[in-house]
Amino acid sequence: MNIKPIILLTAALLTGLSGYAQQRNADSVANKPSSTVTAKEDFKDDWAALSHYAIENKQIGAPKPGEKRVVFLGSSIFERWKTTVPEFFEGKPYLNRGISGQISPQLLIRFRQDVIDLKPKAVIILAGSNDIAGNTGHVTNERIMDNIKSMVELAKLHHIKVILCAYLPVYDYPWRKGLEPANKIIALNKLIKAYVVANNLILLDYFTPFADERNGQKADLTVDGVHPNAAGYHIMADVTEKAISKALN
């Protein structure tokens, strides 16, 4: 029996089967849905935290006819207000745009998105304390004022009334002890008051009702010597409403 043809036939069949299997594997891989790995978005370039209120701003939209919208621009003093005494903002056209830890140049960067684009009638600017708290020798009251002045000029250009705040007193920062900020805040407040007078703005004095004999905060109005407690925010609410009424009337 001549087995040569049988061997050749078997080899051909095995080659064909191997090719078929390889093709099936290739087709299976080609038709299998690719597993996409979603890269985590990197926000290192968002130094001013524009992403913090971006979605909320879009959802709010433009003011309703007759709405006298007011934006609160600042850092943790304002941001904590929303959680400590939330009822102050309920049912009012007040938009709190505080972000904890922010310094005045960050507020300036956020000014277009978190103030101008929201089309308010007025803006309350509370700036300067975090600049002083993070002082490494380069932050001066003059530089803080430069940032405040730029925000004021932008607001005026867009017909937004400006309310500037005299900052709350601080005797010492719990997280940066030894900076002796009390006199620096007093000096900054003097510059703010002079600028308010020279430019026909509204002054919102948060310093006077909080100050104790050391030019720190009264113990019964604060949680840590820097941030108000509920009683402190109720005092802030009273003087704030008066300033808003003066600005809008």
TrEMBL record:
The keyword Signal applies. Keywords: Signal. It comes from the Bacteria. Residues 81-234 form the SGNH hydrolase-type esterase domain. SUPFAM superfamilies: SGNH hydrolase (SSF52266). Residues 1-23 form the signal peptide. This is Lysophospholipase L1-like esterase. It comes from Mucilaginibacter pocheonensis.
